[in-house]
Amino acid sequence: MNDVIGSPQVPSRDERTWAMLCHLSSLLGFIFPVIGQVVAPLVIWLIKKEDMPFVDDQGKESINFQISILIYAFISFLLVFLGVGILLLMFVGFVQFVMTIVASISANDGKQYRYPYIFRLIK
């Protein structure tokens, strides 16, 4: 079935697991802000991107999302001084947590997940 030219390749169990870990590892950012949030998925992506195309795709998506979250959190932090930033920071944290879980489940199912409203800096 996958021999047809142009048909999508079904990721192996290992690829799906590593792609899921790319997404889930970013939750370390709640324990080690910034470093855990970006470095953990970056390391997994850099190690596995050559051998596993699905991990390459999902790793880039995860890193782009985490960079975008950092930008949104920084803007929210600046808005703390105007009184609305605290609510925005809580919202950004909630969105990061929920979207990361959704992306992890999707990656584990072998589906290419795309985060909405992110900057795609790594292509």
TrEMBL record:
<dbReference type="Pfam" id="PF09685">
    <property type="entry name" value="MamF_MmsF"/>
</dbReference>
<feature type="transmembrane region" description="Helical">
    <location>
        <begin position="67"/>
        <end position="95"/>
    </location>
</feature>
<keyword id="KW-1133">Transmembrane helix</keyword>
<feature type="transmembrane region" description="Helical">
    <location>
        <begin position="21"/>
        <end position="47"/>
    </location>
</feature>
<protein>
    <submittedName>
        <fullName>DUF4870 domain-containing protein</fullName>
    </submittedName>
</protein>
<keyword id="KW-0812">Transmembrane</keyword>
<keyword id="KW-0472">Membrane</keyword>
<dbReference type="InterPro" id="IPR019109">
    <property type="entry name" value="MamF_MmsF"/>
</dbReference>
